Structure formats: structure tokens, C-alpha cells
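Table 4 source record.
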Amino acid sequence: MTVFDKSLPVAIGCDHAGYEYKEAIKTYLESQGFTVKDFGTTTPNSVDYPDFAHPTASFVEEGKAAFGVLICGSANGVAITANKHQQVRAGLCWDNEVAKLVRRHNDANIICLPARFVALAYAIQMIETFYTTAFEGGRHGNRVNKIACS
């Protein structure tokens, strides 16, 4: 069961390293009853990850998405870019337990996946963990409230 609103789309974006994963993840999310707003890229040709991470993050930040998924080779570039947005908490996940913790403890609203370091099936498992895990609040809420700079 999802903890996110399925009436809103999932925002997704990637660079060339994440293109194949993005396409498969879109299919998976749609099979789970989500609609998907794809911010690209639309080919495996080399591109600059901020060109796709910023629009994806903006869509989440504006409250137009249930949550976001960003994919690049290491996931570092898209995570750094997305976290420039004040209302975004993008968590870089390489393990299922990390996917759970970024939701439980950090109230992450974007999951960032390293296509060059995790198998596609495991990336999909992490996404499922991400969207089915609730934020714990409490002491974690106090911490999350201290993240924004403004």
C-alpha cells in the first residue's frame, strides 16, 4: 500500500545513464496504478543531468507530484541538483534499507537511483519500499524542519 497520493503523478527524470532504467520504472509504476510525468531524457544519447533533474524536482516542490524518481550513473549528480530545491528532500539509495530510512527518518520525496551500481530489479524494489514507507515524524520531524535554508 502506498503512503503517497495516487491521484498525483510520479515525476521521473534521468540522464543518459539512467534512460533504460527510467523506461522500465515507468512501466512498473504504471502497473502499480500510478500515472507518470516523464521529464526525460528521451534517448540514451549523452545529456547533462541538471537539465532533467531540475524540472523533475520543481514538479515535486510545487506539490504537483506524489513523489519523484531520479536516475543517473551514480545518482550523486541528480541528488545534489534536486536538493537545491527548498521543498525537496532527495535521498540517494543504493540499498533497500536506505530507501526505507530516507522515508522514515528524512521524509524524502524523491528517490535517486545509481543505474551503474544497482540492478534494475533491485532499483524497482527500492522504489516500492520508498512509496510504501511512511515518515515517522516525532524527533525526525524536528530534524527535517531544520533542513531548509530559508
